[in-house]
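Lab notebook page, bench 4
Experiment: in silico fold of construct C2
Operator: M.H.
Input chain length: 269 residues
Purpose: comparison with the prior construct
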Amino acid sequence: MARRWIWIGLGGLLMVLLGLGLSPAQAAGPLQPQQTVSGLPPMRTTAAATLQPLKAAQRGPTDFATPAPELAQAAQPRQVTALADPTNYGDRFLTDINGQVVRNDFIAVLHETVGSAQSALNLFRTRHPRDQDQVSYHALIGRDGTVYYIVPPEKRAFGAGNSVFDGPNGPETVRTNAAFPPSVNNFAYHVALETPGDGFNNRRSHSGYTQAQYASLAWLLAQTTIPDRRITTHQAVDRSGNRMDPRSFNGQVMFSLLRQYPTRSGLSG
């Protein structure tokens, strides 16, 4: 008799799970972390003592002299590792919160800091225990063209909140936290450009980015296998309605530099 009631109880539990639209495996299965990635720039290792952003503190339309384009592309930019606090990034996942397998190709999402590079780096290196305060990019490009590596490429940077990428196969987004809307973070490589001094505000435009920044951005993206059609902006993927970055971005300049790299053959279509 006891065995009969056990089977009835198990059957009732199964019916409850099915009624909630969940299978037993989905209900019990945790998110599966992704251990490695390919096709993204590796994080260079540099001494912590070299973390000295060269951005001038005063406001102004330009902060650095513009180098000749051919020199900017010929040499590798200065590279510095400024790893974010672990609270500000997490694992990429192979499954979403419902246990569904995700197979999104990578996208590159372009941002701007709206403040100095130093203030952004300080923010990312500050511990944020609350989920709603956590923020980061994978890389940041200073006004002088320096590339700061902040989050390892195999990890998920918290660069976009409520966000969707409208790809050729339809909307792409992944939900990895039940407390927040879905986002592109699970398959995004986030890169920010340091904002000029006259852009430390909420206006829709500013004086723009330096040639050194465009050259370094092209160099960084040339290390990836992300095709041109999957390079986008925070404003384009945002669904909150309040993101405008990167303001005053000149995509024509960046893509003209990017497409000069032999590594981009077959990726510009």
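Observations: The CA atoms of residues 135 and 158 lie 5 Å apart. The radius of gyration is 22 Å.
Next step: discuss at group meeting.
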